[in-house]
Write a structure and sequence with these properties.
By secondary structure, this protein is α+β, with helices and mostly antiparallel strands. The protein has 13 helices and twelve strands. The strands form two sheets. It has a six-stranded mixed β-barrel.
């Protein structure tokens, strides 16, 4: 009964009711859209970090200091492939370890060429990166021992150099040295920095050392822990092992740096989370403004319907009935605005995903919270006008013109 009276009262001023709801509609829609953008960014970051491999640690060469001039990590060559072998052999928390050497080079196939990232890796690199092979095979131990001139190429390189042709057993040239293509990697996509992971050529790290770079050290070592729970343990054990192998005294700094991808992922996710909260808070201001609009209109409505309130009281309506009627009107406006705002927010999120190519993720929990919050706004801002209506004196209300 009360709901029907409230709906009838709102229907008498449809345009005014809609304009009152507009603040709630925009507020709820903005909250859902902004939070969806933030959640989409976090989800994308997590997926991109996961594409680099799970439970992964990266060991970089150390810094140096000479003549008062200090250099950052990577300025000295302190890592050897034997360090990686020692990790898998001696540390129970380490599942796989692979040396990694990188350089940009021009790769030639027939009359085509392509500038790409050439990486020297061990067979374990495939398990560390969890990178499937779409055709052929990956590198194996025999390739390492013989410093074989074989290569596994990424999907982008395969497309650029061979198009629709089969690249297996084809010959590519890196710095005028012929390499036979033995495998093609499955697509991995981009990193969080926008780098194309599929734009790469992988060769045995021993071949990279002897034929392409002519060095005996390695640029980095990539390690995979046994499981996520033992990543921190692996980091500590690797640090202790390398300090021992490199004969670093207790008072000296490490000549290497162990980086945890989980920490990098958490830092990136935290940044995205802060942005989502900030955007959601800004959008939430619209809800507050919408609530103030509801209070304002309900106060106007109480003034306009003072005589009606007096008549209802005269025929037996109690104060709590009057209060409930106006409170229901406020909640109906807020909840209806909330429902329309939810549809607007979801629609905006989809448009941003389709047209602006922004990653968005609409969470059902956010939708539920936004709707409940809109109802709470109606109750909070409708309470004072409802109480004012319920407190009117019936005699004064009947005399009101």
């Amino acid at each position: 009964m009360t709901l029907r009276i409230a709906l009838r009262a709102l229907a008498r001023n449809k345009l005014r009711a809609f304009l009152t709801m507009l603040g709630i509609i925009i507020g709820v829609g903005a909250v859902i859209a902004m939070v969806a953008i933030g959640e989409g960014a976090k989800s994308t970051i997590r997926a991109q970090i996961a594409s680099l491999g799970t439970n992964v640690l990266i060991i970089l060469p150390g810094s140096n200091s000479a003549g008062g001039v200090r250099g950052g990590f990577g300025n000295v060559n302190t890592l050897l492939d034997s360090d990686g072998k020692a990790m898998t052999r001696e540390l129970p928390s380490v599942a796989f370890a692979s040396p990694v050497l990188r350089r940009q080079d021009q790769v030639v196939a027939g009359n085509l060429n392509w500038g790409t990232l050439v990486q020297g890796v061990a067979p374990e690199f495939q398990q560390i990166r969890e990178w499937e092979i779409s055709a052929g095979r990956y590198l194996h131990d025999g390739d390492m021992e013989s410093a074989a001139k074989v290569a596994v190429i990424g999907q982008t390189v395969a497309n650029q150099l061979f198009g629709n042709d089969d690249p297996l057993d084809a010959v590519i040239r890196i710095r005028n040295i012929p390499f036979r293509v033995v495998g093609v990697l499955s697509p991995k996509g981009q990193t969080s920095q926008g780098t194309d992971q599929d734009d790469t050529v992988m060769v045995p790290y021993t071949t990279m050392q002897k034929r392409l770079m002519r060095i005996t050290w390695v640029q980095t070592i990539v390690v995979k822990a046994v499981n996520a729970e033992r990543v921190q343990e692996a980091q500590e054990q690797i640090t202790a092992l390398l300090r021992q192998r490199h004969r670093i005294g207790p008072d000296r700094d490490d000549d290497f740096n162990v980086r945890n991808l989980s920490d990098i992922a958490e830092a990136a996710s935290s940044t995205a989370r802060v942005m989502a909260i900030l955007l959601g808070s800004v959008a939430g201001i619209s809800l507050l403004v919408g609530g103030i609009g509801i209070m304002n209109i309900m106060l106007v409505s109480v003034t306009e319907r003072t005589r009606e309130i007096g008549i209802r009281m005269a025929v037996g309506a109690r104060s709590r009935d009057i209060m409930l009627q106006f409170l229901v009107e406020a909640v109906v406006m807020a909840a209806t605005g909330g429902l329309i705002g939810i549809l607007l927010g979801i629609g905006t999120s989809e448009l941003l995903k389709q047209w602006a190519q922004w990653p968005t993720l609409v969470s059902p929990s956010i939708v539920a919270v936004a709707f409940l919050f809109s109802g709470a706004v109606g109750i909070f801002f409708g309470f004072y006008p409802a109480k004012k209506a319920a407190g009117l004196d019936p005699i004064d209300a009947l005399r009101y013109e």
